[in-house]
Automatic annotation (TrEMBL):
Self-association and partners: Homodimer.
Names of the cofactor(s): Mg(2+); S-adenosyl-L-methionine; [4Fe-4S] cluster
Note on cofactor: Binds 1 S-adenosyl-L-methionine per subunit.
Record key words, sorted: 4Fe-4S, Iron, Iron-sulfur, Lyase, Magnesium, Metal-binding, Queuosine biosynthesis, S-adenosyl-L-methionine
Pathway: Purine metabolism; 7-cyano-7-deazaguanine biosynthesis
Enzyme Commission number(s) of this protein: 4.3.99.3
Entry superkingdom: Bacteria
Protein name: 7-carboxy-7-deazaguanine synthase
Pfam families given in the database record: Radical_SAM
Binding site for [4Fe-4S] cluster: 44, 48, 51
Enzyme class: lyase
Residues annotated to bind S-adenosyl-L-methionine: 50-52, 86, 127-129
Catalytic activity: 6-carboxy-5,6,7,8-tetrahydropterin + H(+) = 7-carboxy-7-carbaguanine + NH4(+)
Length: 210
């Protein structure tokens, strides 16, 4: 049971339910191949059946951690931080992003967009899910749209979502890992016919790194 004082700190973003944080290589999307410090925050109710971090869903399993301590760890390793989840926008991210920017650390987020935007971001990767669609406000500020392709119907979903983002938004199709052998050839064919899209692969899994 979280006491009232801890809950107040969580509400302010001065504590967050940290699942894990680690320094690695960005494996997906526009920034693939770049070194970054990942902060994975627990809690998600979007409920993708193919999610590969389902242990992140229950925020109660991940103890509230002082945000200042998370920032201090991040500063030791990298000049770019990626905040992910779970669904990180379930939490107030103003405090952590302000603290990172004060230390000249760039902030990236990977989100489904299903919750109101908080925080100050250098890069927003929007990865919409059919189970809980993004709020309208995030489409115009998204730098990158990343659609996970599990079946053929996801191509139609991708185009529907692409019609809502700005013309400068980078568009990516990424095969869902467990179905990659079936869907990757279809994505290759689709991108060749629709070159406004690019292919994203989970290269960190091929490289066997976190």
């Amino acid at each position: 049971m979280i006491n009232q004082h801890t809950q107040e700190l969580i509400n302010k973003g001065e504590m967050l339910p940290l699942m894990e944080d680690f320094y690695t290589i960005q494996g997906e999307g526009f920034h693939t191949g770049k070194a970054a410090y990942f902060i994975r925050i627990g809690g998600c109710d979007v409920g993708c059946h193919w999610c590969d971090v389902k242990e992140s869903w229950n925020a109660k399993l991940h103890p509230p951690t002082k945000t200042d301590a998370i920032v201090e760890n991040a500063k030791k390793y990298a000049n770019t931080v990626v905040i992910t989840g779970g669904e990180p926008l379930m939490w107030n991210l103003d405090y952590i992003t302000n603290a990172l920017h004060q230390s000249n650390v760039k902030t990236h987020i990977e989100t489904s967009g299903a919750y109101k935007i908080s925080g100050k971001w250098n890069w927003i990767c929007l990865s919409p899910k059919k189970t809980k669609l993004p709020l309208n406000d995030i489409y115009i500020v998204a730098n990158e749209l990343k659609i996970i392709v599990y079946n053929k119907n996801d191509f139609k979903f991708a185009e529907e979502q692409a019609s809502k983002v700005s013309k400068n938004c980078e568009l990516f199709l990424q095969p869902e890992w467990s179905n990659r052998e079936k869907m990757t050839p279809l994505i290759v064919d689709y991108v060749m016919k629709n070159p406004n899209w690019k292919i994203s692969l989970q290269t960190h899994k091929y490289l066997n790194i976190p």
